[in-house]
Amino acid sequence: MRTIKLILLGIILLAIVVLGLANREPVTLELLPQGLAHLVPGASIDLPLFVVILAAILVGLVLGYLFEYLREYKHRKRARQKQQEATQLNREVDQLRKETKRPKDDVLALLGN
Q: What element of type H or E holds 4?
């Protein structure tokens, strides 16, 4: 499985390098619409096209992970509550076993009686 993972990462890295080599021409990235560009000096920058593409992919990934994290919050909260509940019940069972002085294994406790 590790080998497959490394091969896939290598293919992705190779695709990024090929994308970068094929799209080296500079493009002008306008940060504001044309009507507002005169209000803020330096509202446009020249970057290689592959940088713009990779930045857009990175922003999309970060936003996707953020939305997924927020969407799964209720499930993580419920799992945490159930874990705390299970821990509390295990403590109660251990306490009851100490009070009744029964062995930890219920099968042995049944055989002993």
A: helix 2-22
